[in-house]
Amino acid sequence: MKKSVLSFLFLLFVQMGFAQSDLSWQGYFSYNEIKDVSESVTAVFAASENALFSKNTTTNLIKTTNTIDGLSGQTISSVYHSATFNKTIVGYENGLIIVINEADGSILSVVDIVNKHLPANIKKINHFMEFEGVTYVSCDFGIVQFNLTTMQFGDTYFIGDNGAEIIVNQTALFNGFIYATTNNGIKRAAIFNENLIDFNQWATITTGNWSGITTFGTDLYAVDSFGNVQKFSTTSNSFTGFTQLPQRAVDMRATTNYLILTTLNSIYIYNNQMVLLRQINTNQIPESNLGFTCATIIGDVVFIGTKENGFITTSLSSAATFENITPAGPSRNNIFALQATPNVLWTVYGDYSGDYNPYPLNSYGISKFSAAGWLNIPYEKVFGAKSMTRVTINPSNENEVYASSFFSGLLKIENDVPKILYNQTNSGLESLTFVGPNYIDIRVNGTAFDKSGNLWVTTSRIKNGLKVLKPNGQWQSYAMDAILASAIDNNFGTIAIDKNGTKWLSTSEDGVVGFNESSNKFKKITTGPDTGNLPISNVRVVAVDTRNQLWIGTTKGLRVLPNVGSFQSGDQMTANPIIILEDNLAQELLYEQFITDIAVDGANNKWIGTADSGLFLVSPNGQETKYHFTINNSPLPSNVINDIDINDATGEVFIATAKGLVSFKGVSTAANDDLSNAYVYPNPVRPEYQGTIKIAGLLDKATIKITDIEGNLVHEATSEGGTMEWDTTAFGKYKVASGVYMIFISAQDGVETKVKKVMIIR
């Protein structure tokens, strides 16, 4: 396989960022799951699942930072802003630390803890505490020093019994001692003791499981795992009871004037006299299904982090007004499926396991992105549709959208409003019955529109697994028990419909099933050299390309049916692997890979998503791997690719991963019907521009010739799809000089032509 054009260098310290002149990435992250919060005098910093945002309380400007900017797609567990150094430190569950220099936006990734010879499940970073230029990093194994001046780690303190690893949840400084709350007591040691790596220097003040500790004014407070808040007595060198919370505390912190305790359902704010100044409960906020995660205060404003509803503010002195200041984005980062048109993008969040098990059922809504921004339709408005796993936009009316529920049926949305949930009572859909006649479970998955406006629908684990909803509202069912080995054991993946109207269905047990209602004939491609040559019968995705080939993604690799027209013959259809040369050895493209999706762009390139190896872009015949994007060489937040779709008008490739949605701005747009909309951009090309010139709005196989003003030919090419790039060189040898260049475009048959101009300024 051709090596990726991108590279990644593993270093102890990695200066992050993926900005490249020929690549364009965009992030569409959810900021609703707030993990932690920090503050300065004029700004608040909130960490969501795998992205950050900050709000300047003076200018009200909101800034976001995500994997496009250089963050990791791993799960964030802690954040801290150092006002002294103007740096924001992000801690992750896997032990990664990322330092953001707020002065210039540079990002540094520090992997010392990730590389420590410790079990991977005890590297989580829980808290940062700064003292004299050093942050004391509380981890699930102990405490680590990190110097904010040198950006280097210092000592590691293993303070458990006999120097064992121990979960340290939080640290605080008080009267010359560093105190640490752990899952086995509160421990302390003199902060200036030069031998803190010796566990014997750490004394146990009290036993028990303690979640938080903080200095407030002239006192020290701690809270245990049962919500018991205690105050340290310098007289007795012990903690004594202060108050009992009704729930365990999920966060404890102090500002100059306030002590803040957060539980799942309440926030308790104490003033300097330890008088409860305000209690904020979830039922006081209009948002539904609220759960608090953390809170802090700047001036008179309380900033509240929630589990699923983002970041909420309220005035400390007013109990009535709440404002959600979360940056716009989808409801969740784990987008399972999406579909794009030139104007809109729809996403759904349901899922199922590798063996198509939708349990435990999830209750999320559906989201839409357009020029107006994000619209999130909550679960409360989708008529109880659970585990929505596909979304399909009517190509003749993008205001009509259908979402497949792998438990509840088929949801129809018109003009952004859910209108009806088709189920066993009001449509041709059926519930599976092997659990019992009284249990309703309608597993709709793959859906697709044909050229006549019929919506084809698959329903798993029933006899009549293929159905069609006609434009007049009538349903028709097709029995599949004759073609499937066991219909009630079969699950369906995606559907593709070719130019002949043949429906290609991916199945979990029987490979690919083809069906054409004109002949009322079913045929299938499955395993075995004489029955289809698939590597495994579990097929997840099928896609028809512009050359009428059927690309088949299985849980064990890739196959291609050379011509979908072979369905019309009487012969057994046979799919073939793509054999490539890698290191002069013949190998199978994507051998044994679990393929989750295949999308075909305007130039007939294939974007192929995998379950754990990231994203591949291969040439039309698969012989060249143009890109292999992973979390190590690109802004992908995860190597788990759930779904891919392409905006045919712009070439933007949307990539739904398990940890966020990103897009890659390609140049392979769909071909146009004529040259009336051909255009060139950028135009003019200014000296600071380092990218390529795009000639868009083309016919497929159009001939493009570029000359200088005197008629000297400097470039010639044939378009693949609707867009072509020119690197502004004369046949790849040298950059052309400043001037006006003529672009002559002609259709393949020479009947239609177009002339455009572009000015280049060096």
Q: Overview of this structure, please?
A:
There is one protein chain. This protein is mostly beta strands and 762 residues long. Among the domains are: 43-251 and 266-276, YVTN repeat-like/Quinoprotein amine dehydrogenase (Methylamine Dehydrogenase, Chain H, 7 Propeller); 252-265 and 277-327; 328-479, 7 Propeller (Methylamine Dehydrogenase, Chain H); 679-760, Sandwich (Immunoglobulin-like), CATH 2.60.40. Helix content is 1%, strand content 46%. β11 (125-131) and β12 form a beta hairpin. The protein is globular, with a radius of gyration of 30 Å. The two termini are 38 Å apart. The relative contact order is 0.07. Residues 44-202 form the PorZ N-terminal beta-propeller domain. Keywords: Signal. Residues 1-19 form the signal peptide. This is PorZ N-terminal beta-propeller domain-containing protein.
Give the N-terminus to C-terminus distance in angstroms: 38 Å
Q: What is the CATH level 1 assignment of the domain at 43-251 and 266-276?
A: Mainly Beta
Approximately how much helix is present in the residues? Answer: under 10%
Main-sheet strand order equals 1-10-9-8-7
Which of globular, elongated, flat, extended, rod-shaped describes the shape? globular
CATH architecture call of the domain at 43-251 and 266-276? 7 Propeller
- How many runs of DSSP E, i.e. beta strands? 65
Q: Tell me the CATH superfamily of the domain at 43-251 and 266-276.
A: YVTN repeat-like/Quinoprotein amine dehydrogenase
Mean pLDDT metric: 93
Radius of gyration: 30 Å
CATH T-level fold name of the domain at 43-251 and 266-276: Methylamine Dehydrogenase, Chain H
Estimate the strand proportion: over 45%
Overall SS class:
mainly beta
Describe the biggest sheet? 5 strands, antiparallel
